[in-house]
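The instructor's notes for this session suggest beginning with a concrete chain rather than abstract definitions. Hand out the sequence below and ask the class to guess, before any prediction is shown, which regions might be ordered.
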Amino acid sequence: MPTEAEPAGKLATVLAPGDYVVRAACAGGYFAKLTIVEGDGLPLSTDVDCDATTFQRFLRHAGGPITISAIPSTGRPAAAGVAVGPNTDPLASAQEDMAEWSSTRLKPAVPGEQAGSAASNSPTSFGMSAKPGTYELQFLCEGPSGTELSVASWSGAEVVAPVQVHCNGNVFKRTVQLEAGTDRVDFTMKPGDGAETRYAFRLVPPR
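After discussion, reveal the predicted structure:
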């Protein structure tokens, strides 16, 4: 933990490549600004509530130096501390694997896009926030067969009627219109033959 002379918790170390969990906590103040800098990369910052339990954030590190700091808000005497350790949650690592896989299939990233990914051997749904407007829906799947895709608004209005998509690496594209009042859409996938299948999808706004 930090000292009275230096109330900001700070940790600088060198880590091997792998999955980690960053932990931060603060006391006495309202919040602390947590900042993570990997090597020469850009800082990643978020606020930590001092009234909450210990903050935790999953981190996939490429290996090398990393600096983690937590600076308490001003106005009240406060202290903050940070720590980093190996990730022990296999689900968190699996979710990061899916996110990385998805980002390599649907690229380049487009400003304003809404993207998601999922994997299942049975019918599954994934919801994402989306504002009303016109988008290009992009979808692909990876598995031994095909899948049935359908998309609906949060209110249940049909956006894409059920359609069979072949899981051959090609991107299925369709222009869709989200009506006024829409703030969320649900993607529903039903893999054929009950086979384990991965999905990557996104809504791309007009350029």
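Then share the key points. Helices lie at 90-105. The first strand starts at residue 9 and ends at 15.
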